[in-house]
Predict the structure of Betaine-aldehyde dehydrogenase.
Amino acid sequence: MNFEYAAAPESRSVVKIDPEYGHFINGKWVKGSTHFNSINPATEEVLSRIALGTASDVDAAVKTARNAFDKSWSKLSGRERGKYLFRIARIMQERAREFAVLETLDNGKPIRESRDVDVPLSAAHFFYHAGWADKLEYAGLETTTAPHGVVGQIIPWNFPLLMLAWKVAPALATGNTVVLKPAETTSLTALLFAQVCQQAGLPEGVVNIVTGDGSTGAAIVNHPGIDKIAFTGSTDVGKLIARAVAPTNKSLTLELGGKGANIVFGDAAIDETVEGIVNGIFFNQGHVCCAGSRLILQESIADEVLEKLKRRMEKIRVGDPLDKNTDLGAINSAEQLAKIHELTAAGDAEGANRWTPSCALPDKGFWFAPTIFTGVTQAHRIAREEIFGPVLSVLTFRTPAEAIEKANNTPFGLSAGIWSEKGSNILWASQQLRAGVIWANTFNKFDPASPFGGYKESGWGREGGRHGLSAYLKGSAK
Ligand code: NDP
């Protein structure tokens, strides 16, 4: 018998969204000169008007961050800085529901994920780094324990609050002050975070948030008063930033794109593996830099895995992100949806076989059904380029050496997964794979204590753990 789920929508009454927002500079709200709409991608409803930061807004933010660094933040002991971080973490926990609903409205991700992943992990990043603030000299770092000064941080739209936490928490713990720009389509939780900074009594100017588009990001990158840039986003923009920063003394970390290989050996536990494959590519609509977007299956079990995967995909519930039953929410923007359509059409044109479960998509908003392509070869665009959507490209292999060769045959090197019952297989394969993060018999697991970052065109530097602290201290590589 088939049971239908009754709708279980989370109430949005817990959030208050202003019709218009300014920038958060020097602990105060500063009016913007022009604004753009922030919409709910699940309904296309306009949620608010966001200020478009100009070069002079960025300049004001950098000056106030410098002033806060010189006059207050750099004078505090690590212990005192840690107290503020603990306070921020606790307030984020207290306001967790508000953050989760707002993130889901603004980003389109299911409430189940914003509530159970994004928000708790964001608070965990502040707790973790609060603990390091007074222990930097005992962390065994290869850098000094002196902060860079003013840090410019630019983040993408796929995990808006979590990426903010990954950036702001280590920067503050190590004694830097911050000018942060959220992504154009997802500024709202960063603006709510600004309220948390006020509530925590954080000294004015320590965290500044300037909203805007790529031009605002470029103004941060090119501002001479910035000592370090921390960027997460696409490889193309990462390359532009690397070029802009190269002739300067600015320090730089880049967390860029990926095309993660999820390798399944013939001896893997198939049912668990199928769950891992689903989590690897359909979590957060596949808008995940480290998604397991290339499934590399040993031929001997390929048919069985694909049959079970398709059966499992029939159960993925696509729809209202605020419904607690929803597994797959909306695509973040019309632009991203167009990119997914373009790449999947290339998959069809190049001869791969597309399969989607029989799921109805809402009429309004931006949606894409979970999709797999079989018969994919290394030369196909869908095997080489990041789709950044709920689309899985399936390749097969006969020998372990072939699996590794296929997995490493990519300009990226961010993540990989290995599924096998044999420890020796896992250890061997993980030594051959060129990826910054490798999961074994699991996928998409994150922890603030664990460093995250890539090889090759996936960027440089690490975030999280002790390694992530180093990036915010003088003496770090570039
Ligand atoms: P983009 O690179 O387009 O944007 C990232 C951020 O940079 C946004 O805030 C964007 O502003 C800003 N930006 C755009 N142009 C410039 C510029 N010339 N100078 C400075 N800043 C600029 O990426 P997306 O937002 O589309 O994010 C998706 C990409 O991010 C994917 O490729 C994904 O793999 C990668 N990513 C990597 C992660 C990692 O940890 N390695 C994690 C998450 C995502 P605006 O939004 O206004 O355009």
